[in-house]
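As agreed, record passed on underneath.
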Amino acid sequence: MKSDLNLSLFFYPSMSVGRVIYSIDIINDSLIIKKNNSIDNKEYRGKLTDNQCAEILKMISLLTQKQDRANNFALDVWGCTLKINDKVYYEDNFFSFLPQSKIMGWQAPPEEIKLLIDYIVSLSPIEIELYSFS
């Protein structure tokens, strides 16, 4: 199955947008995951199944609007950028996988974006760990 997927997901220290620690790229059925930090660099390349591609395309079709929270900044937190077809669809410089009640001032992404990010991260054989920088 030829998928028209072109998606990138980046996680980075919120005060250092240009320093991506984790990147996940999906191009058609190719999955490319990179972890880049001063201690540990890893890269994984693999193929998605037809069902995985179909699930991602279905989730993308449910996205209703772009979300830009790029002006949110705090120390010791992560930023997240989701690009679809080379356009920023979601950007937040105060992102977490933890429930909203655990972090003061944090706002969860819209549910359809959260589901897509969670699904993409679940495909990674490289653990995506958003630890504290302090």
Notes: The beta strands are 6-13, 22-27, 30-36, 41-47, 67-69, 78-84, 87-95. The two ends are 45 Å apart (CA to CA). The longest helix spans residues 50-61. Helices lie at 50-61, 111-122.
